[in-house]
Amino acid sequence: MNVSVTRKPLSLADPNGFRYLSIGLTLAITSLFLVLPLATVLTEAFSKGLGPYSDSLTHPDTLAAIRLTLLTAAITVPLTTVFGVAAAWAVARFSFPGKNLLVTLIDLPFSVSPVIAGLIYVLVFGAQGWLGPWLAAHDIKIIFAVPGIILATLFVTFPFVARELIPLMQEIGCEEEEAALSLGAGPWQMFFSITLPNIKWGLLYGVLLCNARAMGEFGAVSVVSGHIRGLTNTLPLHVEVTYNEYDFIGSFAGASLLAGLAVVTLIVKTFLEWRQAQDLKAARLASE
Questions:
Q1: How far apart are CA 98 and CA 86, in angstroms?
Q2: Which residue stretches of 9-158 are H helix?
Q3: Mean pLDDT, rounded, for 207-217
Q4: Which of the two ends of the chain, N or C, has the fewest CB atoms closer than 10 A to its terminal CB?
Q5: 206 with 221: CB under 8 angstroms?
Q6: pLDDT given for residue 62 in this prediction
Q7: Other CB atoms closer than 10 Å to residue 266's CB: what's the count?
């Protein structure tokens, strides 16, 4: 005799208020670890008024740190973008020996401490490193100079664009690209007419995250910079130096710029995620 068992559908009713308890706990933790520190930074930055805050931001050392931070981002973000697009194209569109190894290497900076990454560059390019004597003989400075900062920043930022584009391009597929090639389009024409419009929101999302990390990186840059005022201090390093010297207004003024960057990044990130989701939804509907 067959006995059929009817299962009661899962109900989302919450008579015990567990839903409200979990929401309240989430909001409390978010406020404690995110909102409260941000409010503290802004309060301390303006604690003595707008004048001292403005003077701190226009101090020569602060301006030098801002310029170096912008220069580092201006160099590393385009390089990371080119690498990310090329790596995503190779992984998502081709099969080749060592493909899994390439994906693993792309993820390597996510698993290596930034401080260790900076130490690696010191061991390679430092005065006592593998290439140190040769660099010194040719008067080439990498460690405790701008090139070292750029190299360290490249190491910690280069996965962002690639890791954003690889799953996106795999999900989109290559049917439209194959159709364009079959109709006589060249590789570059296909890329700019088909591939780039399909991945533009994901690409912008990866570039945004890469830029935020480049401007906010501390660990790897701290090891290779030497903390030379006006020369090798990026904005995060400048915040640490001024705080250690009890210049709290200067420290929190610089921190407020980084906090503002974080807020803007979050807003733009949310918009780009929404647009990317809309494009993927439209692509699925069109394929159906």
A1: 16
A2: 18-30, 36-45, 50-57, 60-93, 99-111, 114-125, 132-137, 146-157
A3: 92
A4: N
A5: no
A6: 93
A7: 12
How far is CA 184 from each of CA 165, 179, 181, 187, 214, rounded to the nearest angstrom? 26, 9, 5, 10, 40
Specify the pLDDT at position 287.
63
CA-based nearest residue to 150, from 247, 252, 80, 250: 80
How far lies 204's CA from each of 78, 79, 84, 124, in Å? 12, 14, 12, 33
Q: Is 8 helix (H, G, I), strand (E, B) or coil?
A: coil
Handedness of CA 274, 278, 283, 288 (dihedral sign): positive
- Determine the Cα–Cα distance for residues 99 and 170; give it in Å rounded to an integer: 14
Predicted local distance difference test score (pLDDT) of residue 203: 92
Neighbours of 102 (CB within 10 A): 15
Which residues are within 8 A (CB) of 277 and not within 5 positions of it... i.e. 6 or more apart? none
Question: Hey, is 142 helix, strand or coil?
Answer: coil
Nearest to 132 by CA among 148, 146, 117, 150: 148
Separation between Cα atoms, residue 110 and residue 117, nearest integer Å: 11
Distant-in-sequence, close-in-space partners of 264: CB < 8 Å, separation ≥ 6: none
Closest CA to 169 of 264, 280, 88: 88
Region 64-89 average pLDDT:
94
Structure tokens at 105: 């290497």
- Tokens for 16? 């015990």
The stretch 193-214 carries a mean pLDDT of 90
pLDDT in tens, 25-47: 888 888 788 788 888 888 888 98
Beta-carbon neighbour count of residue 132 at 10 Å? 17
CA pair distance 118, 222, nearest whole angstrom: 8
pLDDT, averaged across the chain: 86
Residue 9 DSSP class? P
**Do residues 42 and 256 make contact, with C-beta atoms less than 8 angstroms apart?**
yes
